[in-house]
Amino acid sequence: MLVSGLVAGLILGLAAGGHWRNLQGFELKLWPGLFAGVVARAVAPFVGGLALVMSLAGLVLVALVAVANRALPGTWLIALGSSLNAVVTFANAGMPVDPGALAASGKPAPLDGLHVMLGPDTRLPFLADVLLAPVVNNIYSVGDVVLAIGGFWMAFRILKHR
Fold this sequence. Notes:
Elements: H1 2-15, H2 31-43, H3 51-68, H4 75-92, E1 95-97, H5 99-105, E2 115-117, E3 131-133, E4 138-140, H6 142-160
Parallel strand pairs: 1-2
Antiparallel strand pairs: 3-4
Helix pairs in contact: 1-6, 2-3, 3-4, 4-6
């Protein structure tokens, strides 16, 4: 969700009169950590038994890079969203996903080693993947939404900075 938020922020920032030149002076501390975190999250569903560890490591890396760059707009939201996802994933040994939302989306249960079915024993169920977005037919968590808003705000504000 971070990447989609950043892309949306770039598009709307430019549409609202922002300028690419504002990115020239943009400096992101520990950017290799962010890159590694995003890659770890992207490949986690495809690595079987390491999916959970890679996903958690990716979430923690993204949060740490966001904290290191806390002076930038939106980074505290990125750190919060990533941390919320890490907490619920760690507490349940996987990201819980709502079976009702899965049924409504028509998607099968994910068998990626990262997701688990939300049930009566789920810890912190309000942080799980329970938010069905019909337009894109996907299921998100509160942390995902907060991450996307943080990424959007960062890109938008940097392009619009005068």
